[in-house]
Amino acid sequence: MPKVADGADxxxxxxxxxxxxxxxxxxxxVSRAGAxxxxxLSFVNHANMGVYRDAVNNFITGKTARPEITNHPxxxxxxxxxxxSHSLRLFGRFGWxxxxxxxxxxxxxxxxIQVGSDxxxxxxxxxxxxxxxVFVSNAIKADHQRYLARGAGDFCSAxxx
Length: 161
Fold this sequence. Notes:
Blueprint: E1 18-26, E2 37-47, H1 52-60, E3 77-87, E4 90-97, E5 111-117, E6 119-121, E7 126-131, E8 134-139, H2 142-149
Helix pairs in contact: 1-2
């Protein structure tokens, strides 16, 4: 895991900072026409992440001039989430994480829904190509919303020390 959110320098102490990613792929026989795959995904991140609710409470009680997610003692917190991916000619994906800890190594999304379809490139003799429409909806949880609504920045606007 990075030393700071979205940072390039890694924290090499695995007791303090690490990530576990799990994927289980199932290939049920749905029809004779083709194979399908269902992927169950999960992650657990351990890092020096702030807690949105704590940052907002520190601001409300006057401890900070604005909510500041990086203004906390060195601590290891855990962020976790899961996803499901299914793909045929139509596909869908749902992702979720607990939303109370600082966005750290991916992006500031606490839940996502994606649905779409694709068409292979067989018609133009490029069987590995795919083209098609997709709908994506991303959201952040209430603690994260309250944190940003009070004038706090995200990790894209944070500066490293």
